[in-house]
């Protein structure tokens, strides 16, 4: 549904070239909710701008919904953009127009006759849970409700792909969860492909099926969460299920171990740790990610028995991630 092939974007600046994307190849299947995470400057916004063809790649190709957007003429591009919905952190609604009129706007641009517009707008309002608020002006809506209008507006032209750039960063945690649930619900009903750019790992944990970690314009790691969380030493997994920091001070030999799979596997791993006399837990975290349970623990392991202890834990199915030995 979305294919990126060896995508490179270089910005010429006065002080030299900035390589914002450096050989990105990525396949996002239809109906997937895919999170793009990475630190500030990693290239997330550049990537989303290339997907909408607001930015032309320096080299490489971008194929969205069967069309190579990197090669389309301006006229073809306007057509193709209708198949791409955008949701932003700041919704930017027309303040002087009602919610319904805001949602109708892209329909008018697309040439949908007035009579059909009203029906479609009501369907969209219903879809985002604002069925009875179509007459409200933006100033009369909460932040979460405004984002719902933004999502309805993005879906108006029946896009195949929904691109979300920090869709919940301006919202509190309860509203964030509601909006993410709405995005998932929309995907389930419409089968739309969703890309979410976010600096919040909680967003990925909550809603994404798969994720890509970017750093310095390159992919560090990518994959379905269910696979990622069981990869030993996975940077994405560590970012998504961080173990609370422990002071190194008097800890002799900290070891990071992890387990992933069904709840019984986590229980089995915890039993192995608990019954290991020469290791004890100093910190730990357990989460559900992409339908898979994942546990991660920092253990303090007695120095002399290190090899034997780690061997026993490994035999019990635990991945040893951070073996200082
Ligand atoms: N128009 C531009 N001209 C020159 N350099 C740019 C331009 N846009 C982005 N860059 C550079 O490209 C790199 C990637 O920027 P980008 O905005 O994609 O990062 P980001 O991951 O979205 O960061 P943030 O989380 O801060 O939004 C950065 O080094 C940035 O300075
Ligand atoms: Mg950005």
Count of domains: 2
Question: Helical proportion?
Answer: 25-40%
Q: How many strands?
A: 14
Helical stretch count? 11
**In CATH terms, what is the architecture of the largest domain?**
3-Layer(aba) Sandwich
Under CATH at level 1, the class of the largest domain stands as Alpha Beta
CA radius of gyration is 23 Å
CATH superfamily caption of the largest domain: P-loop containing nucleotide triphosphate hydrolases
Categorize the overall geometry: globular
Q: What is the fold named in CATH at topology level of the largest domain?
A: Rossmann fold
Q: Report the β-strand fraction as a percent range.
A: 25-35%
Q: Which H/E pattern describes the elements?
A: EEEHEEHEHHHEHEHEEHHEHEEHE
Query: Pairing-aware structural class of the strands and helices?
Result: alpha/beta
List the helices and strands and how they pair.
Blueprint lengths: L1 E12 L2 E13 L4 E6 L5 H8 L7 E6 L2 E2 L5 H8 L2 E5 L10 H11 L4 H14 L15 H13 L5 E5 L7 H18 L2 E5 L3 H7 L2 E6 L2 E7 H4 L6 H6 L13 E8 L1 H12 L4 E11 L2 E10 L4 H10 L3 E2 L5
Parallel strand pairs: 3-8, 3-9, 6-7, 7-8
Antiparallel strand pairs: 1-2, 1-4, 4-5, 9-10, 11-13, 11-14, 12-13
Helix pairs in contact: 3-4, 3-5, 4-5, 5-6
Protein name: Methionine import ATP-binding protein MetN
Subunit structure: Homodimer. Forms a membrane-associated complex with FtsX.
Function: Part of the ABC transporter FtsEX involved in cellular division. Has ATPase activity.
Describe the structure.
- By secondary structure, the chain is of the alpha/beta class.
- The chain folds into two domains: 2-224, P-loop containing nucleotide triphosphate hydrolases (Rossmann fold, 3-Layer(aba) Sandwich); 235-320, Alpha-Beta Plaits.
- It contains eleven helices and 14 strands.
- A six-stranded mixed beta sheet has the order 6-7-8-3-9-10, with helices on both faces. Strands 2-1-4-5 form a four-stranded antiparallel beta sheet. Strands 12-13-11-14 form a four-stranded antiparallel beta sheet, covered by helices on one side.
- Strand 7 (161-165), helix 6 (173-190) and strand 8 (193-197) form a beta-alpha-beta unit.
- Helix 4 crosses helix 5 (143-155).
- The longest helix has 18 residues, at 173-190.
- It is globular and about 75 Å long.
- The chain binds adenosine-5'-triphosphate (ATP) and magnesium ion.
- Adenosine-5'-triphosphate (ATP) binds next to strand 1, strand 2 and helix 1.
- Magnesium ion is lined by residues 44-45.
